[in-house]
Design goal:
The chain is built from nine helices and nine strands. It has 223 residues and is an alpha/beta fold. Bound molecules: pyridoxal-5'-phosphate (PLP).
Length: 223
Amino acid sequence: MSSSISERITKIRSTLPQGVKLIAVTKKVPSDKIRLAYEAGIRDFAESRIQEAMGKRTELEDLSDITWHFIGHIQSNKAKKIISNFPWIHSLDSLKLAQRLDRLASELEINPLVCLQVKILPDPNKSGWNIDELKGDLPALALCKRLQFQGLMTIPPLGLNDVEILDVFKRTKELATEIRDRNWQNFKMSDLSMGMSGDYKIALQADTTMVRLGTILFGERPL
Ligand SMILES: *Cc1c(COP(=O)(O)O)cnc(C)c1O
């Protein structure tokens, strides 16, 4: 890519509707590049591995108005460190984890903002609830009073065409709306965390509110 990080950010920003949050995914991106994205106006950043994230967090401590989002699978022994350091969790993928986070959040006296990760189509490579499982777990999730359920997160399985991807995103939105309409106290359900570099334009067609972009901003990640 010949354009700079700042040029790419400006260009993509100009295509996003008002109210859609651009979250820069900085896994495997060194902190000097994160700084460039910050200078270009980004304030929401996402990481998927706690160990990698904490080193960079120290280097970026002076950028105190960043909101950090966690988007990776959460192992139970890392849960406390993760919710202590990330106000947003997009990858809440099981009732058991929700209950653990709720207990930890009580201890820490915090109210984490969370998205429930859903699988609209079966996908052995991803964690998360399928639609029926999630509906079944909702009453138990509602007892996790410390968690603020902001919405749903999804990643379509690999190998779908654009029409199929759009369908996954639309069904995710329908599910979020259905849950929101129950008007349960800690279920705000107004956010959709959908869309990565390859499919964010499709996610916009399904009214996503948060796009998580890595490669398209920072270039290919090293393997
Ligand atoms: C890596 C990652 C992204 C960003 O992916 P790109 O294709 O590089 O934009 C978004 N969401 C999650 C959950 C990720 O792990």
